[in-house]
Amino acid sequence: MYTDPRGEAYRQVIDLAVRNSERFVLGEKGRFPADGGWRRYNPILEALEPYLVETIKLPGSNREEIRQMMETYSSAFYTEGTYYIYACCEESGAVLKQAANRLSDWVYPDLPEDLCFLREGGGDYLYSVVHEDTYGMDITEEEAVVLMERITGLFLELEAHRDLDCLLEDAIKHQTDRLYVSGHRLTELPERIRELTELRDLEIFEQDLYQLPEGVFELSKLERLRIMTADLEGLPASIGKLKNLRELSISCGSSDRPAPGWRPKPKEEIGLDRIPPEIGELKQLEQLTIQYSSIQELPAELEKLKNLRSLDLGSSMIKHKPDFLFRMHKLESIHVAQQAYWSEETGDEME
User: Fold this and answer.
1) Whole-angstrom distance, CA of residue 58 vs CA of residue 66
2) In this structure, which of 144, 269, 276, 298 has its CB flanked by the most CB atoms within 10 Å?
3) Which of 85, 111, 142 is the last residue of a domain?
4) Which key words are in the record (predicted)?
């Protein structure tokens, strides 16, 4: 799954998993309190008690047992903890639908973790590892196409999504809140990106993408924007429109398909040579990363970012840290590096 289904799509997926699975599992990982006395979700465990089939405790000292459990039963058994296995039926499914609005809700401390549905004889039908933002179903491509037609909001990865138009069409149809774009050899990003009005997380890794269309800056719900490219011509003033942005990361000198001997252009020639003063309008911004740029100075408007905790300007052309950075008391990490060289052994940039 590109993202976990929410709302009505989540409820339909739970119904589907209940029909196609024998059991489901919820876990209390190793960090949970031993007596469970203050967990918030006790009422959920009590509601599921009539359907409890088995309780499994995995000690962290036995990694081989954990590995075997993952291979035999489910990817849910990836660490030590207590695991509750329940029978699938309409009534237990109703509890799951009432307790959460999406798969990512199944996380400590509000709920037990990583809801997974098990096939008869072992293996996952539906799996989730919330802390890794990993969700999926063990189904064929043909089954995935049918389900996506039937359940709006269930956005599954398909081979057909190697075609960017197909990927965007499905992303828009299912109003995904997360999207990763890479390997399409893009020189420009389609303006249709503005139709992804629910998008909160956008990551693009395309080495020939030199400009961002205005449509990106109309994604008002965007919280995380990551761009990796060989060269970005600049960051427009429109960046100030992304009022909900919490993380902005730009890495120039990057290649998604490096040929033997490939190297980035000298950073003096990188088009990204300034941070627009409108950056100061991003009041929610917590992390700002710009790697390998020709930026020589920082705008004073950065000081307006009262929530900024991390500033990383590695391999820039900035010679001195401006004094205002040291007045930004929420900043926990400041990395402003000018010099860089390339490892002849690995071809990687080093500082």
Assistant:
1) 7
2) 298
3) 142
4) Leucine-rich repeat, Repeat
Residue 152 lies in a domain: no
Question: By residue range, what is the domain housing residue 318?
Answer: 158-350
Q: How many domains does the chain have?
A: 2
Question: Same structural domain for residues 181 and 318?
Answer: yes
pLDDT per residue rounded down to tens, the chain (351 residues): 999 999 999 999 999 999 999 999 999 986 555 555 557 889 999 999 999 999 988 886 667 777 777 777 787 888 888 999 999 999 999 999 999 999 999 998 899 999 999 988 888 999 999 999 999 999 999 999 999 999 999 999 999 999 999 999 999 999 999 999 999 999 999 999 999 999 999 999 999 999 999 999 999 999 999 999 999 999 999 999 999 999 999 999 999 998 898 999 999 999 999 999 999 999 999 999 999 999 999 999 999 999 999 999 989 999 888 899 989 989 999 998 775 433 333 444 444
Residues 162 and 136 in one domain: no
Indicate if 209 and 336 belong to the same structural domain. yes
Same domain as 278, residue 168: yes
